[in-house]
Amino acid sequence: MTVVFWILAVITVVGGVAAVTLKNTVHCALALTAAFAGLAFLFLQLDAQFVGFAQILVYIGAVAILVVFAILLTRGSEKPERGVFSRTWLAGLLIAAAVFAVLSWAVLSSAAALPGAGEVPAPSVSVAQIGNALMGRYVLPLEILALLLTAAMIGAVLVALHEKGVRK
Amino acid sequence: MTPLAGYLLVAALVFAIGLAGALTRRNAILVLIGIELMLNAANLNLVAFWRYGPHPEALTGMMFAVFSIAVAAAEAAVGLGLVIAIYRSARTADLDEINRMKG
Asked: What is the pTM of this model?
């Protein structure tokens, strides 16, 4: 385990915790961006350059901006008077802790079977290879995804632009 | 601890944080943020298994992560559009106060 990995892991986890615990929702969006950046650099650490830069472009560039727009359009930056956590926060916290306990138990108990450091050479993947794979073996999922993105974009615009006057 | 176990543990922790956020926050946008964190944790698992798996040259895990990022972007757009639409009709994004489905 390298020092870089631990630094990135701490950035990601602290950003994630801040994103779900801070009171001001704009600060939450900022912390979420930090968590996304940490994850993007973790992808780069894993020799997945394409996924890392796609993460930066899609999440930091688009999703974070969308979240900020939604917060400002819904006056979500105003602090609610009854606290930011729901009535059933204790049950939710217990469920999340139980899920983490099960997942970490599964990882740690099977750690001996996982490949160790240095056993797997770093794969060298060029963007040309990824493009060939996308246009060859994965062309059908790519087309379906294009359709899904178009439908989602039209659907989001239709849902969000619903005016009171035209409602039937 | 092997590198793969480290990445899997970080992913599990991020997933649990996202789940806790989705289950405990009042604001609908914060619930969506929690869901985004959970999706990202799954992507980290996919890429980590791709990197330390037996056939990284097949690109399967990496492609799965790329497609997952694209689907998550579509989900974020529709989800935030729904939050804005609900805010227009209910005048609040507080999930404890949105307790009816009829507008």
From this structure: 0.90
Q: Any chain B CB within 8 A of the CB of A152?
A: yes
The phi-psi region of residue A23 (left if phi > 0; otherwise alpha if psi is between -120 and 50; otherwise beta) is: alpha
CB contact under 8 Å between A93 and B96, yes or no, is no
Taking the C-alpha atoms of residue B9 and residue B1, their distance in angstroms, rounded to an integer, is 10
For residue A7, how far is the Cα from the chain centroid?
18
- The single residue listed with the structure tokens 């993460």 is A55
For residue A25, give the amino acid letter. T
Among A20, A58, A59, A75, most B C-beta atoms within 10 A, so best to mutate, is A20
Domains and CATH numbers, chain B: 3-90 (1.10.287.3510)
How far is the alpha carbon of B78 from chain A, nearest alpha carbon, in Å?
A: 5
B50 close to A (CB below 8 A): yes
Chain B residues within 8 A of A48 when measuring between CB atoms? 47, 50-51, 62, 65
> Cα angle vertex A110, ends A109, A113, to 5°?
145
Percent of chain A with pLDDT over 70: 89
Query: 3-state class of B94 per DSSP?
Result: strand
Give the model confidence (pLDDT) of A43-53 as tens digits. 999 988 899 99
Residues facing B27 on adjacent strands: B94
Architecture of the CATH domain A1-79? Up-down Bundle (1.20)
- Which of A20, A123, A134 is nearest residue B57 as measured by Cβ atoms? A123
Q: How many residues does chain A have?
A: 168
Which residues lie across from B25 on neighbouring strands?
A85
Chain A: give the shortest CA distance to residue B101, in Å: 15
